[in-house]
Amino acid sequence: MSAILRLSGLRKAYAGVRALDGVSFEVEAGSITGLIGPNGSGKSTAIDCISGFQKLDAGTVTLAGTDITGRPAHHIARTGLMRTFQTVRVYERLSLADNLAIAAQQFDPATWVDEFLRTRRYRQAVEASERRARELVELIGLERYYNAEAGILSYGQKKLVALAAALMPHPKIVVLDEPVAGVNPSRIREIEVALQQLNEAGETFLIVEHNVEFITTLCHRVIVLEQGRKLTEGTAAEIHTDPRVLEAYLGMTPEMAEAEMRGAA
Ligand SMILES: Nc1ncnc2c1ncn2[C@@H]1O[C@H](COP(=O)(O)OP(=O)(O)O)[C@@H](O)[C@H]1O
Ligand SMILES: [Mg+2]
């Protein structure tokens, strides 16, 4: 077992609000790990701090043995930690192929000089990027749209394109912020299957989600946050039957907590 991402003692306060109050956990290479918790428990703050979009007050973040604590977001991305956002970001008027080519170019060593001179290095980079794009589009089940404008896709499918774009530079891990928020319930399964296929192909994910049903279906391991602290962690089955998790999700009746955990609220 080897941890690709190691978080230790994360602390972050906003004007007196302890958003993260000493959170530690690890993500194993090759796993799908879930981070859940009720609204306001610190999930977004955790991923913002991990990916360099917020500064931690204390704690350390280690990616594949490299300390990335406090590094700027673009540096963390280049070190191999990519993230997706709750709201989708795709180029609607461009094809899936072009969306992914652009994503690769941002990380490509080939400079505009190479491009101008049409060097061998440039051609090789373009070929490698095309192979990667085709492979990813197939894994997310959208190969028939490879040359179609991204704008014609459903919201859930656009989220998958944004995920494929994040995967273009071969990151060590992708952190997903609420991948099924706002997605039509009939299309959630599509996202689940895509994530499973990508994981079987070797990709590692940390998924932040409010929908516990989705997380427990997909994740090998689940971390539960409550009020900026780690309430518990375990396998999906352990988390699903843990009375503390149900209680954290509402502190009301088990039926209401169950409904909330299914993402019905
Ligand atoms: N920019 C901010 N300024 C002030 N308080 C914030 C800010 N972002 C989050 N918080 C507070 O920090 C706590 C954790 O929020 P957040 O990380 O967004 O939780 P979650 O994503 O689990 O809903 C909440 O009490 C929230 O109100
Ligand atoms: Mg949030």
Explain the overall architecture.
The model has no long low-confidence stretch (mean pLDDT about 90). It is built from eleven helices and ten strands. The protein has a six-stranded mixed sheet with strand order 6-7-8-3-9-10, with helices on both faces. The protein has a four-stranded antiparallel sheet with strand order 2-1-4-5, with helices on one face. It folds into two domains: about 1-80 and about 170-265, Rossmann fold (3-Layer(aba) Sandwich), CATH 3.40.50; about 90-170, no CATH class. With about 260 residues, the chain is an alpha/beta fold. Helix 3 (about 95-105) packs across helix 5 (about 120-140), helix 3 (about 95-105) packs parallel to helix 6 and helix 6 (about 155-165) runs parallel beside helix 7 (about 190-200). Bound molecules: adenosine-5'-diphosphate and magnesium ion. Adenosine-5'-diphosphate binds next to strand 2 and helix 1. Magnesium ion binds next to helix 1.
Which features would summarize this protein structure in a list?
265 residues; 2 domains; binds adenosine-5'-diphosphate; 23% strand; alpha/beta; globular; binds magnesium ion
Itemize the secondary structure elements and their pairings.
Layout: E1 3-14, E2 17-28, E3 32-36, H1 43-50, E4 58-63, E5 66-67, H2 73-79, E6 81-83, H3 96-105, H4 112-117, H5 120-139, H6 155-167, E7 173-177, H7 188-200, E8 205-208, H8 212-218, E9 221-226, E10 229-234, H9 236-240, H10 243-248, H11 254-261
Parallel strand pairs: 3-8, 3-9, 6-7, 7-8
Antiparallel strand pairs: 1-2, 1-4, 4-5, 9-10
Helix pairs in contact: 3-5, 3-6, 6-7
